[in-house]
Amino acid sequence: MTVYLNGNFTLVEKAKLSPFDRGFLFADGVYEGIRTYNSKLFRYDDHIKRLIKSLNEIKMKFIDTIKLEGIIYQLIKKNDIKDSAVIYLQITRGTQFPRKHSFPHESTGPNIFITAQNLNENKEQLINGVKVITDVDNRWMRCDIKSISLLPAVLANQKAVEAGAIEAILIRNGMITEGTNTNFFAVKNNCLYTAPESNLILSGITRKVVLELSKKLDIEIKEDFINTEDLRSFDEFFITSTTKEITPVVQINNLVVNARKPGILTTKLQEAFRKLTNQY
Ligand code: PMP
Description:
Helix content: 25-40%
Order of helices and strands: EEHEEHHEEHEHEEEEHEEEEEH
Bound molecules: 4'-deoxy-4'-aminopyridoxal-5'-phosphate
CATH topology of the largest domain: D-amino Acid Aminotransferase, Chain A, domain 2
Low-confidence stretches: none
Strand content: 25-35%
Largest sheet: 10 strands, mixed
Radius of gyration: 19 Å
Shape: globular
């Protein structure tokens, strides 16, 4: 596998990064995950906008995002990825020695690491839906920044896996925020509910696309937090992300949803999403 690290394409076995990288020491960095449809980066501008926002928020300098696009396409080619690719960009505040919390000197460049891999879509989950659990949202108050500091999300997701589920839906003060790596949606009386954009969720690109499609399909949208006590009153649920697209949720903890069948509106949105990505 060929990866990109700080200006060079190299075999992953040969990629070297100092253990004094601030990402390793302090989780001082941000990341982005992008995918392709029909060999084209999907909503690249949206992903780059989000990356720039994340960089700005952690007071890192703007990186050359025009050059970045070319690098990503080269990486896809070098890895001979013919089907869908998933690309991860990891950007840290660089390498600093000796260890010190405050920022390194301006001349310290960021460390930029990019991978491109074949995306193994889970078709079964898209068709039949998944089980999720709920867990406490233990993350910090800036979930709008795509920080590489993911420990609360890692722990909650592991809890989900150990419970035979694929995702943990996070709850802060009785309200559902989002999943550990997905946004969460619910449907009631043909109206779509999802948490509003704020510091408490990541503004998912798939979330944005789903809201755009819903508007086109004349589906009513309420960007409101869902109270966990009201979960039973909803008809359908789904989660969204770049890699999971629109995945129906058919069980939340012990609550079986719609006799374990993906809902009508969920399926309608999946079809609209498929149409969009097929034409991309
Ligand atoms: N929320 C969180 C916390 C995430 O990590 C992700 C994955 N990037 C998402 C939502 C979904 O975002 P997107 O649709 O842009 O992949």
